[in-house]
Amino acid sequence: FVSIASHQLRSPLTSVRGYISMIIEGSYGEVNPKVKEVLTHVSDASRHMALSIEDYLNVSRIEAGNMKYEIADYDLKKLVKEVVVELVPVAEKKGIKLEFKPATEECVAVKLDIGKSRQIVQNLIDNALKYTKDTGTITVVVRKDIQAKKAYVDVIDQGIGISPEGLKTLFQKFERAKNANEINVTGTGLGLYIARTMANGMGGDITVASEGEGKGSTFTFVMPLNGIEAKWN
Ligand SMILES: Nc1ncnc2c1ncn2[C@@H]1O[C@H](COP(=O)(O)OP(=O)(O)OP(=O)(O)O)[C@@H](O)[C@H]1O
Ligand SMILES: [Mg+2]
């Protein structure tokens, strides 16, 4: 049911979003600034709605065992850099510094689904932005361990941190830590569940470390190196 409902909501919402952005851009004539401001809120809300619908679709795909992966060889470092570049303006708006710090000069060749991997990295950075109250720095590191045959993407924040109890439940569906609710940021608690399931589906994982509330968090997306490193570098 969720899957059918989500599919049916998706296309009208896409057209609503299309019209709103055309009105904002002035395609139907000049828009006064007050109206434009209101429409910008409508546009943000509809974007949230679209993202939630995608999440519900993903959960129903997971539960039906229906998640499909299109696996290709790709440079994980390149992929992460692209996602970071897109999110820098979003971070700036919040007064947060988002920096990309690759720990290797070489490329990081991994077998992955490009769309899903982008979604995972986006998700981890979105959370880091969401759960940083004031100003701070988010550092995104890409590194590899040739011996262990693994690639790592660390998203390190200086945000609200996670208690030991929170660490135990945060990858479960609909689970949110107490301090996340306290700071009034909304969320459904689906992001990490979907992200970890996708990482597992590509042979990887997501791990988390935090020294406690108020002490920041580090989320790591781990993937196996594909073994063609030498050829690419
Ligand atoms: N960077 C972070 N710092 C502190 N807590 C975090 C961080 N990322 C996730 N969490 C905690 O893990 C919980 C689950 O995260 P998840 O992304 O699955 O859900 P969400 O952000 O609450 O909602 P959404 O489904 O919109 O992503 C969050 O509610 C929060 O308590
Ligand atoms: Mg989230």
Automatic annotation (TrEMBL):
Class of the enzyme per the UniProt entry, highest EC level: transferase
The protein's name: histidine kinase
Catalytic function, reaction form: ATP + protein L-histidine = ADP + protein N-phospho-L-histidine
Ranges for domain Histidine kinase: 4-227
Keyword check for Cell membrane: no
SUPFAM superfamilies from the UniProt entry: ATPase domain of HSP90 chaperone/DNA topoisomerase II/histidine kinase, Homodimeric domain of signal transducing histidine kinase
UniProt keyword terms in alphabetical order: Kinase, Phosphoprotein, Transferase, Two-component regulatory system
Known EC number: 2.7.13.3
Pfam family for this entry, one: HATPase_c
Single annotated GO MF: phosphorelay sensor kinase activity
